[in-house]
Design a protein that fits this description.
Length: 118
């Protein structure tokens, strides 16, 4: 079961690069599908957000084991996709996420720290 995630978010496409952004998006979805087939990630979910006045236009949540996601995050292929995305969309970012048991452990640590300062 996935205990970690990668939140990959972006804003609007850079003007004039909309077509390239769509091509890259489809290429990236193929990459994540391959990683899922190979057992490197558990799942991924692309999401487009409706206009809301903020910088976030959409995201992909990748679920998997923390160690495997850490290796993917520093891989050459992931790095190249990230660099390309940063040139094609505004506000591109990658953020690690705790899920399931890791989330529960984080809450336990947080609660312990609150008690230590009380």
């Amino acid at each position: 079961m996935a205990d970690a995630g990668l939140f990959i978010g972006w804003g609007q496409p850079v003007r004039g690069r909309e077509g390239q952004a769509v091509e890259l998006f489809n290429e990236v979805l193929g990459y994540y599908a391959r990683l899922q087939e190979e057992g490197e990630i558990e799942s991924f979910e692309p999401v487009f957000l409706e206009p809301h006045g903020g910088d976030l236009g959409g995201f992909i949540l990748i679920r998997g084991e923390a160690e495997k996601l850490a290796a993917i995050r520093v891989s050459e292929e992931f790095t190249q996709f990230s660099l390309r995305a940063g040139l094609m969309v505004d506000s591109f970012g990658v953020v690690g996420a705790d899920l399931a048991e890791r989330l529960q452990r984080q809450m336990e640590y947080y609660t312990e720290q609150i008690a230590a300062f009380a």
